[in-house]
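Supplementary Note 3. Input sequence used for the single-chain structure prediction.
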Amino acid sequence: MLRYVTTNPGKVREATDYLGSDVAQLDFDYTEIQSPELGPIAARGAREAYRHAGEPVLVDDAGLFVDSLEGFPGPYSSYVEETVGIERVYELAATEEDRRAAFRCTLAYCDGEGFDASPDPVDRDDRTVAAATGPDGDEGDVGLPVKLFEGIVRGRIVEPRGEGGFGYDPIFEHNGKTMAEMSTDEKNGISHRGRALAKFAEWYPERSTAE
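The predicted structure, written as C-alpha cells, is reproduced below.
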C-alpha cells in the first residue's frame, strides 16, 4: 500500500486517478524545512513520513513561481497567501513587464530502499549524511534516498478572474483561462500535480512489482 501524506482528500482522489486503488491517505504532520526549492522540503517530509509509517510514502510540495519576482512566492506560497493575500501578489507582478509564472509540484517517494540511476533526480541527502558525523547529526535520515518527480504548468499572472478553484487559481492564466475559470476536469487535465503524478505513475508499477 502506498501512503499519500496529506490532509487533503482531494489529493488522494487525484492520485487514485493515476495510480488506482493502491493509495491511502496518511495524515502525518512532518517538519516543513525552509528552502528556496521544493525538492528538499518534500524529500525531508518523505523521510520523516517513511520512518513514521514503515511503508512506502509519497509527499508533495507545490508553489507558484513568478519569473520577474525571482520565483517568489515559490515554496512560501501557502504562507504568503495566508498573510499577504493573492491580490497583493498580483499587484507586485503587475508592476513588472514580464508576468510569466509557473505552478510547480514536486512529489517525493521513499520506501527505505535505494534507486537505480534514471532521468528523475534522487535526493540522497548528502548534507545530512555529512552532518551525521558530528554530534548534532540526525542519523535517522542517513541511508534514506528519495526519488523526486516534478510537474510544471506554465502561464502568466493576471487580474483575479473566476469563481472556482482555490489559492492562486484566480490570478494564474493558462491558455486564456485562469485556473479559477476552469472546470475541475479541465484543471486536473493540466495541473502541475497531475503532471508529476503522471511521471510517477509511469515509473511506480515497475517498482511495486519488484518489491
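The mean pLDDT is 88. The beta strands are 2-5, 23-26, 57-66, 73-74, 100-110, 122-123, 146-157, 172-174, 177-178.
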